[in-house]
């Protein structure tokens, strides 16, 4: 449907009136022009030029590679906004990792976490507790 026809339909439903362009609309793209545009656009989007499985990988190294490729994409903000709106269940969208419909900092691989990861998480939690205790002790004094 042409834009002018769409706007005329909106007018019939209470819009602001018929739209008259200041410049005539160019002729619609031919099939070869549309194919050329799609090819050029696909060359700019890393998710179209790389293996699509990379954006839904199980291994955290591949997920991080997909996130890094997203940083060069011109549509990264729109991709992320669309994924949040659709509540994507998983994958890399807009340079962020989705797991169960929520954005997470990094994806953990399958299976048990390594001892190093568990120890690092425990150290972070202990440091956060100590910081909270020092803040509450200084505010009580």
Automatic annotation (TrEMBL):
Its cofactor is [4Fe-4S] cluster. One of its GO terms (molecular function) is metal ion binding. Acts as a transcriptional regulator. Probably redox-responsive. The apo- but not holo-form probably binds DNA. PANTHER family: TRANSCRIPTIONAL REGULATOR WHIB7-RELATED (PTHR38839:SF2), TRANSCRIPTIONAL REGULATOR WHID-RELATED (PTHR38839). Belongs to the WhiB family. It is found in: Cytoplasm. The keyword Iron-sulfur applies. Binds 1 [4Fe-4S] cluster per subunit. Following nitrosylation of the [4Fe-4S] cluster binds 1 [4Fe-8(NO)] cluster per subunit. [4Fe-4S] cluster binds at residues 47, 70, 73, 79. Residues 46-103 form the 4Fe-4S Wbl-type domain. Upon Fe-S cluster removal intramolecular disulfide bonds are formed. The Fe-S cluster can be nitrosylated by nitric oxide (NO). This is Transcriptional regulator WhiB. It holds the Pfam family Whib. One of its GO terms (biological process) is negative regulation of DNA-templated transcription. It comes from the Bacteria. One of its GO terms (cellular component) is cytoplasm. Keywords: 4Fe-4S, Cytoplasm, Disulfide bond, DNA-binding, Iron, Iron-sulfur, Metal-binding, Transcription, Transcription regulation. InterPro entries: 4FE4S_WBL, Whib.
């Amino acid at each position: 449907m042409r834009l002018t026809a769409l706007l005329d339909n909106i007018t019939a439903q209470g819009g602001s009136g018929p739209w008259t362009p200041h410049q005539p609309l160019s002729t619609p793209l031919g099939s070869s022009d549309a194919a050329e545009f799609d090819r050029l656009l696909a060359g700019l989007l890393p998710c179209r030029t790389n293996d699509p499985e990379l954006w839904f990988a199980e291994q955290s190294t591949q997920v991080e590679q997909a996130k890094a490729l997203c940083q060069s994409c011109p549509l990264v903000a729109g991709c992320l906004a669309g994924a949040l709106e659709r509540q994507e269940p998983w994958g890399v969208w807009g340079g962020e990792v989705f797991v169960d419909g929520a954005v997470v900092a990094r994806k953990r691989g399958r299976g048990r976490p390594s001892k190093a990861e568990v120890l690092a998480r425990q150290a972070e939690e202990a440091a956060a507790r100590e910081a909270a205790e020092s803040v509450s002790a200084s505010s009580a004094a």
